[in-house]
């Protein structure tokens, strides 16, 4: 599974989310990492106390912390996300998840109503994330949270992200929301049914069941309201769509498609784009083709960008957004008959050829990321091919 925004792409939160705890400037010590582990923990305690947290609680959290070599191993060997949209979405959106999602929305209808009223986030959006992250709480991870955070904060790869998370864990413990001995979660420190980091829980956590605590592991109401609070913070626009399947005309200016190229819904309709169900909104939207012009097609409205904030993988993002539309009543997408894609070796070969021609594809890693999609679309147009951003063996052969 690709890493969530709140894990690896959260530098803005990592640097700023703790403003609610202190008005003191971040000290140089906040960037310290490595060296003797106990001395490192002593520095974390000192920083936590300077932010107004209890020295006694900091000792309780940090005294038993240990380096977890399995965490380091997982961090250095993260699987890259190379499945195409049709493959991943069919695996991720099972009949079980659709049925269970509908049941959860019914069971917690009152909580979801509060989430929509207070934060503007509809139930299907929250439920899709809930399903994809942990199968509604069934798979939350078995790594000791404090050990995982201490390990990653001490490691010098991303201390600016994980050191504040370790301090936030102390804050959670002070609130009675984290037991350092028993709290378990993902290897990168995410906790609970919607997999959030301690810093986000401290800032956006909501008590959904009225027990005075925020318990994302055991309380579904807490998880639902906290997710809604976080999604609203990311910029969710109340009452607006996020993704809509559309039917494409036979002939089209494919070079106008892709994230970042926006037109009003009215303009897309004038170009022959038709809604699969319902009506096309006149909001600005990008026309996305996850597997090219012969596969499914969607209009991505401004709220789609919130999915990219949650997780930067285009395939995960589009799957989560589409899953939410299904939970909201949309039909199964028309899969079409996409052209064959590239193998891992072929994708790396394509990236190398594109880079040699001056295109910025980022790392030669075999991943069809935004850089490779944009470069593919540009070179397709240059070669007189349909510029839909989907790399094929035919394109590779032409290069």
TrEMBL record:
Q: Which Gene3D superfamilies match?
A: 1.10.530.10, Bacterial muramidase, PGBD-like superfamily/PGBD
Q: Which part of the chain is the Peptidoglycan binding-like domain?
A: 344-399
Question: Which segment of the chain is annotated as a signal peptide?
Answer: 1-19
Residue ranges of every copy of the Transglycosylase SLT domain listed in the record: 37-324
InterPro entries attached here? Lysozyme-like_dom_sf, MltB-like, MltB_2, Peptidoglycan-bd-like, PGBD-like_sf, PGBDSf, SLT_2
Keywords (alphabetical) are: Signal
PANTHER family from the UniProt entry = LYTIC MUREIN TRANSGLYCOSYLASE, MEMBRANE-BOUND LYTIC MUREIN TRANSGLYCOSYLASE B
Give the protein's recorded name: Lytic murein transglycosylase
């Amino acid at each position: 599974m690709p890493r969530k925004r709140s894990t690896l792409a959260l530098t803005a939160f990592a640097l700023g989310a703790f403003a609610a705890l202190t008005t003191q400037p971040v000290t140089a010590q906040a960037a310290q990492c490595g060296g003797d582990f106990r001395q490192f923990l002593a520095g974390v305690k000192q920083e936590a106390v300077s932010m107004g947290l209890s020295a006694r609680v900091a000792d309780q959290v940090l005294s038993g912390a240990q380096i977890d070599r399995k965490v380091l191993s997982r961090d250095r060997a993260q699987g890259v996300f190379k499945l195409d949209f049709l493959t991943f979405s069919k695996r991720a959106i099972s009949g079980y998840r659709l049925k269970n999602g509908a049941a959860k929305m019914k069971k917690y209808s009152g909580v979801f109503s509060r989430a929509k009223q207070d934060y503007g986030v509809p139930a299907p959006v929250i439920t899709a994330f809930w399903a994809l992250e942990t199968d509604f709480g069934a798979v939350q991870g078995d790594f000791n949270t404090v050990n995982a955070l201490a390990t990653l904060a001490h490691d010098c790869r991303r201390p600016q992200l994980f050191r504040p998370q370790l301090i936030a864990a102390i804050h959670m413990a002070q609130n009675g929301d984290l037991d350092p001995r028993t709290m378990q979660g993902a290897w990168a420190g995410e906790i609970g049914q919607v997999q959030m980091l301690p810093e986000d829980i401290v800032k956006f956590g909501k008590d959904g069941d009225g027990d005075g605590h925020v318990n994302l592991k055991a309380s579904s109401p807490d998880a639902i309201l906290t997710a809604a609070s976080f999604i609203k913070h990311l910029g969710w626009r109340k009452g607006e769509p996020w993704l809509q399947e559309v039917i494409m005309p036979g002939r089209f200016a494919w070079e106008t498609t892709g994230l970042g190229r926006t037109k009003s819904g009215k303009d897309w309709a004038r170009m022959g784009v038709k809604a699969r169900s319902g009506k096309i909104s006149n909001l600005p939207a990008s026309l996305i083709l996850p597997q090219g012009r012969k596969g499914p097609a969607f209009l991505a409205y401004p709220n789609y960008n919130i999915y990219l904030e949650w997780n930067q993988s285009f395939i995960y993002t589009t799957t989560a957004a589409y899953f939410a539309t299904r939970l909201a009543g949309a039909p199964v997408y028309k899969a079409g008959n996409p052209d064959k894609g590239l193998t891992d070796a072929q994708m790396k070969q394509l990236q190398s050829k594109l880079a040699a021609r001056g295109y910025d594809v980022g790392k030669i890693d075999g991943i069809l990321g935004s850089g490779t999609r944009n470069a593919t679309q540009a070179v397709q147009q240059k070669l007189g091919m349909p510029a839909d951003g989907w790399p094929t063996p035919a394109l590779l052969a032409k290069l």
